[in-house]
Automatic annotation (TrEMBL):
One GO BP annotation of this record: methionine biosynthetic process
Alphabetic keyword roster: ATP-binding, Kinase, Nucleotide-binding, Transferase
Enzyme class at the top of the EC tree: transferase
Gene3D superfamilies found in the cross-reference section: 3.90.1200.10, Phosphorylase Kinase, domain 1
One Pfam short name: APH
Classification lineage: Bacteria, Bacillati, Bacillota, Bacilli, Bacillales
Any one GO molecular-function label of the UniProt entry: S-methyl-5-thioribose kinase activity
Encoding gene per record: mtnK
Domain of life assignment: Bacteria
Protein name per its UniProtKB record: S-methyl-5-thioribose kinase
Length: 399
């Protein structure tokens, strides 16, 4: 019945999973609920109400859920499945388990992370997770260093790179992250009334900034460094006390490591800006501590992973190479963080940490984010430690 591709709905999904998973075919009451709240796909929770067991089924359509104007190959579901499988081979505790992938229907079934919460929502509620920095830095260093030329035989890496060519999803980022927020002639931008003059001066008319943004865009286009997640914001992270799972790597491709690390930094800063304007000092303190830990633990674990797994002769024999390499990754990180920050304020895909705020609080939070973003982009090589970020946050907060 499902031998050709069709977009499932709450009715047809039940017949589909019963065909795929015979154990569900005999269950007396199976419930289905579409629970997707992302921009691209359809996500169903399928639950055997008798046993209480459930799975998640994720299907890609041929347009983005957020808007038909994005025509996208449903092959992104294969990329997501293969990326999760590969990441799971390095850090099985930090990703959901995949049960099956169906290349005809462009869907995959995976572990239901029912008791977890999407991290962005948890941060909007000012919840704190002391182990997050440890978990996310393990995820990033393991997945980024171990898929790079430092660790993989170069020919194997090139083979893998082919499997992760992801032109349409990369194009979304090229447009939404690297281009549109810097010009006022893109109708997908939406500037909050009250911040128009700020955006005009600091983003749209800032040719010196544009020079740096162009350089970062070309880093994204050309630096096939590692298999990156490609969309590592806090909406792509499930979290609960003591556990973290990174989901949704459908934007994965061989790109610059700093894009992932920068996304994590940027999304912590959205939560920080929310905390600052809401005057929640203990939440702000936790975010600042976490940001410092993310940068510093990333550095430490990067070196350790490199030392444990490197096979590239220069990486093995030249002690100083790792330091030089890491400096570049951290420079990319700061620049990419700045780009993610500006685009979430001005561009199409905004973030709840900021949009939930009202009036002057939202305007101030946006200006805090854009001010820091431009500093990170313009002076990217200065951000080599957690403390350099902390200093920037404190200065802009006092200003
Ligand atoms: C059209 S997709 C908009 C955004 O949602 C995804 O999660 C990516 O961040 C993308 O930029
Ligand atoms: Mg996503």
């Amino acid at each position: 019945m499902f031998s050709t591709y069709q977009l499932l709905n709450e009715e047809t999904v039940l017949s589909y999973v019963k065909e795929k998973l015979p154990e569900l075919a005999t269950a007396s009451h199976v419930s289905v609920k579409e629970i997707g709240d992302g921009n691209l796909n359809y996500v169903y929770r399928i639950k055997d109400e008798g046993t209480g067991q459930s799975i998640i089924l994720k299907q890609a359509g041929d347009t983005a859920r957020i808007s038909d104007e994005f025509k996208l190959s449903p092959d992104r579901n294969r990329i997501e499945t293969e990326a999760l499988t590969l990441q799971g081979s390095f850090v099985s505790d930090l990703v959901p388990t995949i049960y099956f992938f169906d290349e005809v229907m462009n869907c995959c079934a995976m572990e239901d992370l029912g008791e977890f919460q999407i991290m962005r929502q948890a941060l909007v509620e000012h919840k704190m997770f002391p182990q997050f920095a440890d978990h996310i830095t393990t995820f990033m260093t393991e997945t980024l260093v171990r898929t790079s030329d430092v660790v993989m035989p170069h020919k194997d890496k090139k083979e893998q790179l082919k499997r992760f060519v992801n032109p349409e999803l990369c194009e979304i980022s090229e447009d939404l992250v690297f281009t549109e927020p810097y010009y006022n002639n893109f109708n997908r931008n939406e500037v909050t009334p009250g911040n128009e003059a700020f955006v005009e001066e600091h983003l749209y008319q800032n040719t010196e900034l544009h020079r740096h943004v162009a350089k970062l865009k070309y880093t994204f286009l050309t630096k096939s460094e590692s298999l990156i997640h490609g969309d590592m914001h806090t909406g792509s992270i499930f979290i609960k006390e003591g556990e973290t799972k990174v989901i949704d790597p459908e934007f994965a491709f061989y790109g610059p490591m700093g894009y992932d690390v920068g996304n994590v930094v940027a999304n912590l800063i959205f939560a920080w800006a929310n905390g600052v304007v809401s005057q929640d000092d203990s939440f702000v303190d936790w975010i600042e501590k976490t940001l410092v830990e993310v940068v510093d633990q990333f550095k430490e674990k990067f070196v350790a992973t490199w030392k444990n797994h490197a096979i590239e002769p220069f990486a093995v024999q030249n002690e100083a190479f790792v330091t030089t390499y890491l400096e570049d990754v951290l420079k990319d990180t700061a620049g990419m963080a700045g780009l993610e920050m500006n685009r979430r304020i001005v561009g199409l895909a905004k973030v709840k940490d900021i949009t939930i705020l009202e009036g002057e609080a939202r305007l101030r939070a946006e200006r805090l984010v854009m001010t820091l973003a431009n500093q990170f982009i313009l002076n990217a090589s200065a951000y080599q430690t957690g403390d350099t970020y902390l200093k920037a946050l404190h200065e802009v907060k006092e200003h």
